[in-house]
Each structure stands twice: as structure tokens, then as C-alpha cells.
Amino acid sequence: MTAFFLFDEFTWPEVAALPRDTPLVIPLGEGYELPRLAETLGRPERLGLLPPIPFGWPNSGLAVHEPWLGKLLANLLDSLRDDGFSRVYALTPQGIDLGLGVQRIALPHASHLDRPSPLPPDDERGKVVLIPIGHTEQHGYHLPLSTDTLIIGGIGRETAAAAPDLATCLPVFPYGVSTHRSSFAGTLNCGGRAFEDFWLAVVDALVARGFDRFYLMSGHGGNCSFLVNVVKYAGERHRRIFCATAWLHTSGHIAAPVVQSTRRSARGGMGHAGELETAMILHLRPDLAHMDRVVDETDFVSTPSYFMDWIEGGDLVANPSWDDDTQTGAYGASSLATAENGRLWLETAVAEKAAHVREIHDQHTRREQRRNAGYGLWRGRE
């Protein structure tokens, strides 16, 4: 009988140790018959399930033009092949052609039997659509590949709960962009261009349904510059929306002072899989934080204009090889993390995001008032 395992609950050394003929599958949605999947693949001894893509295909509740989803999926599968895995597949509902050829397995899926509710529901128009985007990537010896997704997914849900009249939240998306992908096993990469095209298509689809306020919320630093591009393109394409993003979470004027006043590590202790992310996982999923495997690494090559911490410092923007600065995949003093600080920092992250929601709502409302009043070049326009 095939044993199924969740790929994103592994650490990168555990992925590195997998036999390279282990089948790995990225599903579109959940609810497939797993015994039938195993049968299709010849009943392997073990089969790895990657995080399901929650939307993007027809009947998912939020569909985009299929080539955008197909390219993104192809890049994710290429990441696994680059790691040496020889049996990698996308699992899709029947009747969907994403241009993946033999990399695609099609099985019956509930989305073709029952039309799902739209994401978000149409009666949520007028609210800020929260779009949490995580990633599946290495986080040192001690944290799971799902770290970014767990954190931003929790922040997104709690932010919507904190401002229910102003915000609605999409399911967390578990894949982003990693330009350092080849350094450590288990790190996937949507590809920057495919990532931008996909998220711009998501905004397009939601605008067509009457939504006009969006907050692209990233839990992974590698997503941020690409999300800025999405925001720029969306603002040019749809002149009467307000689409915004921010650098990660817990890094603005509300949360950052709390983090700085309560952290136990010095500068450099929170770069990646360091004190902050470890503390948050200790609070959210302590079963996935392997503190006995922690290795602190704080010797990032630093200069006044370029250094690594949760809020990257200095005037320079750069992307040097990770191999220069970390031997384990972690930047920071993970051993100093506590679940109590994780709880506190997540609460302040939610407070910060809820404040952003109020500002986005205020920005859009006041701008629409000006437009409707015929301000400046808006005079005479519909």
C-alpha cells in the first residue's frame, strides 16, 4: 500500500534524502481519491503531496486564463526536476489542458460535480480583498518548507476576522518566487514573470466581478519586488481600483517597534528561519519546529548599506548567492525564539495589517469621491 506524505512539512535535509524516483504531485485543489492516484502511478511505496493550488482553474471559484496557470505550474515542476526528482506531476480535474503533456494526471474532482461558491463571495464587494501569498521553500534544518505559508495564511485569516466589515480573505496561496532556488533542496520557484502574470490575471478576474480594493500580502521576501510590479500594472490597467502591497509583515510602524523592543537576538538574528519565523511557528505549529536541530548563523557579510535582518537594512538592493552567507539555509539566532514572542508578534502583525486595510478602504473611498465630483482630469469622464 502506498504511503502518502506531505512534502511541505519536511525540512530541506529530509527532502534532500528522498530517493529521486519518489513521485511528487502538485494538486489543483483537494478531494481527489488518493488510492486512484496511487494506482495511476503504479502503486509506489511512497508518494509526496505538495501543497494544493487553491484556485485559478475553471470551476475553482476564481479562474484565470489557463496559459498563466499552466506556465506557473510548469515552473514549479521544473524546480522539482532541477532537484533531481524524475517523477513529478500536476494533478488536475478532468477536462483541463494546461499544456503540461505527460506531466499532468487528470482525475475526477468535486469541482466538476458541484459548482463551488465564488472566491470571494459576490456579496463581499466593497471590502478589501486580502490575498495572502506564502511559499514552499527551505527554512534551515529545523523549520518546515511551509513556514511562509503557515505564517501569512494565519495573518490573513486573523486580519479578516479583526475587520469583518472591511475585509475578506482568499485562501492562502502556497507558492512564490525564489531566485536562490538551487542552493538548498525543497525550494520551489514560480518564476518571476509567470508569478506576475498569474497575479495580475487574478486581479483582472476580480475587477471584472466588481471588486475594487486589493491587498497582496506576502509571507516570503522573494515575492515582494514582483508584487510591486503587479500593483503597478494593475493600477495602470484598472484606474478606479486601489491595489496595494507591503514589505512582508511585522515590519511596519505598528509591529516593528514591538518586535525590536521584545526580540532577544541582536541585528542579524531574524534574517530567514531566524528568531522571528521560528517563534511564530513555535506558536502556530510547535509540532513542526524541530528545535533540537537548530543551528544559529549570524555571520552574514554585512556593511553599513547592506545587511540581513527581518527588516533588511541599508541603501543597497542586492541578491548575492545564499551560499556565501549560510551553510544550513538559516540566517539568524533561531535558538532564542519563544512561542510567547511568536504569539505576540503574530498579534501585532494582524493589528498592522488591519490598520492597512482601514487605510486602503479610506484611500479608495476618498479617491472615488473626488472622481465622482469631477476632480481635475476626471471631469467629464464616466
Care to describe what's here?
With 382 residues, this protein is an alpha/beta fold. It has a domain at 255-299 and 307-312 and 325-343. 34% of the residues lie in helices and 11% in strands. It contains nine helices and nine strands. The chain has helices at 12-16, 34-40, 66-82, 147-162, 192-208, 224-237, 255-262, 275-284, 339-372; strands at residues 3-6, 24-27, 46-49, 88-93, 104-107, 128-133, 167-169, 213-218, 242-245. The chain has a five-stranded parallel beta sheet, sandwiched between helices. The protein has a four-stranded parallel beta sheet with strand order 7-6-8-9, sandwiched between helices. Helix 4 links the parallel strand 6 (128-133) and strand 7 (167-169). Helix 4 packs across helix 9 (339-372) and helix 7 (255-262) runs antiparallel to helix 9. The radius of gyration is 21 Å and the shape is globular. The mean pLDDT is 95.
